[in-house]
Amino acid sequence: MAAIPAPARAISGAAFATLLLIALMMGANHVAARIAFNNGVDVATAVVFRSTVTALVIVAILASQGLRPRFSPRHKRMLPAIGLLVGVQSLCLYSSVARLPVALALLAFNTYPIWTAFWDAVVYRRRPEKTMLAAMPVILVGLALALDVFGAASGLSTSGQWTRIGAGVGFALAAAATFGLALVLTQHEAGDVDGRVRTATTMTMASLVALTMVASQGGFHLPSAPAGWAGLATLTFLYGTAFTIMFTVLPRLGVVGNSAIMNVEPVFALVLAWLVLGQAIAPVQVAGALLVVGAVMALGLRKR
Fold this sequence. Notes:
The chain is mostly helical and 304 residues long. Helices cover 72% and strands 0% of the residues. It contains eleven helices and no strands. It has helices spanning 13-37, 43-64, 73-97, 102-109, 112-124, 130-147, 158-189, 195-216, 226-248, 265-277, 283-301. α4 (102-109) runs antiparallel to α10. The chain crosses the membrane at residues 43-67, 79-97, 103-124, 131-153, 165-185, 197-215, 227-248, 260-277, 283-301. Keywords: Membrane, Transmembrane, Transmembrane helix.
């Protein structure tokens, strides 16, 4: 996910349903990505397809609406940096999805509110809110349960479990850290840029970052089977459609940008990964997942 959350507000039933639909499509996008990865596609190739198509769709929307963006010198400096961060985040998150059960990769990524508070304190010297400080241990405990960090649910030793999940968790946390920094920079340096424009520039930069990775690896790694093509096409369609809805339908429903409701994405991913990929996790891990999702949603819905 590369959208920038906006302050929470009361929303209509139609907006609530639309947000759930976007969360469902985002969760399904990652399940489709795993299918593509299982059939010859590499992470950089997937990010290029996804980001390029999404950028083209948003640019087409901007052109149809006759919007001519104007950038200040600060915007010209910071928007490429934000796009670079989101590009790295995209590569890291898909790298995690390729190595972990989809829902667990998204849960580890859902620690980004903690990283956002951290970067806000480091870069702008702003102290975290008390609600954030209270939620941090809840999120971390839930994540520990979901990831089965001590190997209790899997029957492995702690070292054995971390051998299995360590790389995937590392990529997910790197994605969360870079996304958290992108959110902070956006809030302070580019919050006054139209969301559609910001998304177009961000997706363009993400595509360029991924293209650089593709070039360094000797070219695109395209699907080796029909299922891979279906997965690549589906993830691109779902991601692009979700962002199109986000920036065309939601503003008319009284919601701008993202919302805490969309943090149910890992729950949708958990169900879809079980149905489509046969990925299942232990009940204690499900409990941990719900704890993380609940804490993150509570943070997003808090009064400001």
